[in-house]
Write a structure and sequence with these properties.
Elements lengths: L13 E2 L10 E2 L2 H8 L5 H11 L3 H14 L2 H12 L2 H11 L12 E4 L12 E5 L1 H7 L10 E5 L8 E2 L3 H10 L9 E5 L11 E2 L4 H6 L5 E5 L17 E5 L5 H8 L8 E7 L6 H12 L9 E6 L2 H14 L10 E3 L7 H9 L8 E3 L7 H10 L5 E3 L21
Parallel strand pairs: 3-4, 4-5, 5-7, 6-8, 7-9, 9-10, 10-11, 11-12, 12-13, 13-14, 14-15
Antiparallel strand pairs: 1-2
Length: about 400
């Protein structure tokens, strides 16, 4: 395909049906025809035009990108989906608009509580919310094989830092139903309460069977107390996004997560908070498989939220000259937000030039001084998008008083 060609091709002529605006019934071919159809007041005409725009290489990607900034929600969402398919230029357009749009998460589906009386009505666009009993009813629905996304809520709010009574019920049920859920791409399992602070104390356990039961899974999102989280070192070829939201996790589960063989993983987010009963050195050792690109060779987003933010920043900086393939050689987004990063940790990243290839560095909700942030902006020490709002102050120079945003 000639990326710069504006010549009409085999499919460029567009014949309008009776329901289409007559001004767009027949349009010129080529890129000019696409531009003309994008002026339509009919959303369906505009969506079809966006899809055709992909045939025109860079010029078409530019048209789709414009719709990110100027269109309704429906067109906007469709433009995002198309740009994800548009190679390097499409990825760059999404990074420039909103770095988080590049990656597949559960937000790509509309969350809806499963109603057994209504049944499964829109499986391709809906993430069905279920408790354990509703999941069993959902599995009896004739369309269960079309399910793409599930949100499984744990109960057990009276079990502080202990396994939820529902966790292994979900795991066993999902594993037994693996032949029915062959299209499952996204799964959330954890606390239903979405609170950015004071993360859940409802416990989760071994996720090995989930990964084994769902070979086509692209998104796995876990929220809960992860002191008992386990996972065997195995390979999963399709997982693109792994999110673990917790403020309670120890070295062993951190190491096991980071040692998984996930060749397709693009987005890894780990909320560590204040790891229990060990030092920052042990935490860094547990993270080494990802810092040295041993487990996730295609990682584009790394989010680490921790009370050891300075130590993590220093380890990332050191990996740039110690590792044969350092993580930041290919990383697009480094997210160290909601920790207790200080000037010391940020300076380590800058001095090592570890962030030279980054598109976005997120250090929001930390303890970096406003003076240092201003110095960075004025001297152009960082050549990437810097997100640095909501910094806290260190009082009386006492490092012991610092805590991460997870403990507010």
């Amino acid at each position: 395909m000639n990326n710069n060609s504006n010549q009409p091709g085999e499919f460029d002529a567009v014949l309008g049906g009776e329901q289409q605006n007559q001004n767009y019934g027949v349009v010129l071919g080529g890129i000019e025809g696409v531009k003309s159809r994008l002026n339509s007041e009919d959303d369906e005409v505009r969506i079809a035009a966006l899809e055709d725009a992909l045939k025109y290489g860079d010029a078409g990607v530019d048209l789709i990108t414009e719709e990110l900034y100027n269109s309704s929600d429906k067109i906007h969402d469709h433009a995002i989906c198309l740009l994800r398919k548009a190679g390097i230029k499409g990825k760059q357009a999404l990074l420039d608009y909103d770095p988080w749009l590049v990656f597949t998460t559960l937000e790509d589906w509309t969350a809806e509580k499963f109603n057994p009386n209504t049944g499964i009505t829109n499986p391709s666009e809906t993430a069905y919310i279920v408790n354990i009993e509703q999941l069993k009813l959902l599995l009896e629905d004739p369309q269960v094989s079309q399910i793409v996304a599930l949100i499984c809520h744990l109960s057990g709010y009276d079990c502080y830092y202990e396994l939820s009574q529902d966790f292994y019920s979900y795991v066993d049920t999902l594993f037994e139903a693996r032949q029915q859920l062959t299209n499952l791409k996204a799964l959330f399992i954890g606390d239903c309460r979405d609170n950015n602070y004071k993360k859940s104390y409802i416990g989760v356990g071994d996720i090995t069977l989930i990964l084994e039961a769902c070979p086509n899974l692209e998104v796995l999102h876990i929220r809960g107390c992860c002191n008992e989280l386990e996972c065997e070192k195995l390979q999963h070829n399709n997982l693109k996004t792994l999110i673990v939201e917790t403020a309670n996790i120890s070295d062993v589960p951190i190491y096991r997560l980071c040692s998984l063989n996930l060749p397709a993983l693009e987005y890894f987010e780990l909320w560590m908070g204040r790891p229990s009963e060990h030092s920052s050195d042990n935490t860094i050792d547990s993270l080494k498989p990802i810092l040295f690109s041993e487990s996730f060779p295609n990682l584009s987003y790394l989010g680490l939220h921790s009370d050891y933010a300075d130590a993590i920043a220093d380890a990332i900086a050191q990996s740039t000259f110690m590792a044969e393939s350092p993580i930041l050689a290919t990383l697009e987004v480094l997210d160290l937000s909601m920790g207790n990063l200080t000037d010391t940790g940020l300076n380590a990243l800058i001095e090592s030039q570890a962030i030279i290839n980054l598109h976005t560095l997120n250090i929001a909700h930390n303890y970096v001084s406003e003076e240092f942030i201003q110095e960075i902006k004025e001297s152009s020490l960082i050549d990437c998008l810097l997100i640095a709002h909501s910094q806290e102050k260190i009082y009386d120079g006492c490092s012991a008083s610092r805590y991460s945003a997870l403990y507010e």
